[in-house]
Amino acid sequence: MNLVYSDSQGNVFDHPDYLALGRNAEMITEIMEDELIPLPEGATLVSLPFTRPVGIDAETGDMKLVPGDYHAVGALLPQGFTRLLLPGYVKSDKTKALPLFGYTAVVWKDDAFYVAARLTDNPYFWNPIHCDVTELESQVKTLTAKYPENRLYAHLSNCALGYECLTASNTFLQRWEGAVPVSYSCNAGCFGCISEQPDESGFVAPQTRMNFKPQIEEITQIMLEHLRTPESIISFGQGCEGEPSTQAALIIPAIKQVREQTKMGYININTNAGLTDHIRGIVDAGLDLMRVSTISALDDHYNAYYKPRAYTLKNVEKSLRYATDKGVITSINYLVFPGVTDREEEIEAMIEFVRRTGLKLIQLRNLNIDPESYLGIIPKARGELLGMKQMIEIFEQELPDVVLGSYSHTPKFYTSDRNATMVL
């Protein structure tokens, strides 16, 4: 397994004399053969700025930095794949933060790239290759012309064509899970927020947050356009907005109006679920699916990352339990990070949290963050570090009725043969 690295121009090489290493949080570690899969279709190799690659000198067996002006290389995985290890590197400038992406260890073996990852869901639906740009541009023109006064369509057109957001693209392609952002405000100050960062954070938000309050008619127009097939999903709560439940006064009447006109498809919300009273109203209006973002079931870790404003993790749990009891299919958007999520105490707490809330799906999502910055704000490990692979196996054993996946699904998914579609 040769180390993969890049020069200052971004050219990627494999090193014939150095074996690849990975990182589990702060610990440089060996990469095991059973942790590797071929580089998935839709993945991207990127150079990690301000880093030096670390490997094993094949001749001496010593851990060494690759000499010269070279950088570590990582892979950015498409949805459906869970990262098991970070790339092996050390910072060359510790004052600099890496851009907000989920870097995965990559190696060269058998004349091909491999990554330390695991297939956890069918990658087909979120593979960028299945988004035809020509068709997308045509559909953007069609729908923005049909609804020239709808600011949400105008906003989503930039998300689809500028940011290449697949959920926004689905809204125009009128398929699968589509987006309907509603909120410019948030009741959390997430350390890794991708749509809004304070100037002093050192991060650059990769997306611009929406800056207007939509009208109910703008919301319902998008919902009715999208909910045209039995398997369609329309989702409140996108990367370009704040917390959608802060706009419950818009969401509740929008859902009611749409459901008076069609029973087709499913209505989903991606939420932090901290505003329990608002979530109850949204659930009662006719919500079908709810995905709740979390990074931990431990208060100190959760609070360090989310910086919740006027709510606690207990509110999140109450919201999930209420939705589950009302028949909503609930899941968590579990932001996972090698060396943190696979800590013994984290695993134990999450298993109990899942059991108490009755959710059906754990969506394992690779945390996009600068590793050093993240590790600097969260509690230190209190128990044994088990590794991501073993963590997943423990979840499968301890939570046999809970599905491990990577994105939201319609109810049919939970009764079908999921394994038949899990192909590389």
TrEMBL record:
<keyword id="KW-0479">Metal-binding</keyword>
<keyword id="KW-0004">4Fe-4S</keyword>
<dbReference type="InterPro" id="IPR034457">
    <property type="entry name" value="Organic_radical-activating"/>
</dbReference>
<keyword id="KW-0408">Iron</keyword>
<dbReference type="InterPro" id="IPR058240">
    <property type="entry name" value="rSAM_sf"/>
</dbReference>
<protein>
    <submittedName>
        <fullName>Radical SAM protein</fullName>
    </submittedName>
</protein>
<keyword id="KW-0949">S-adenosyl-L-methionine</keyword>
<keyword id="KW-0411">Iron-sulfur</keyword>
<feature type="domain" description="Radical SAM core">
    <location>
        <begin position="181"/>
        <end position="351"/>
    </location>
</feature>
<dbReference type="InterPro" id="IPR007197">
    <property type="entry name" value="rSAM"/>
</dbReference>
<dbReference type="Pfam" id="PF04055">
    <property type="entry name" value="Radical_SAM"/>
</dbReference>
<dbReference type="InterPro" id="IPR013785">
    <property type="entry name" value="Aldolase_TIM"/>
</dbReference>
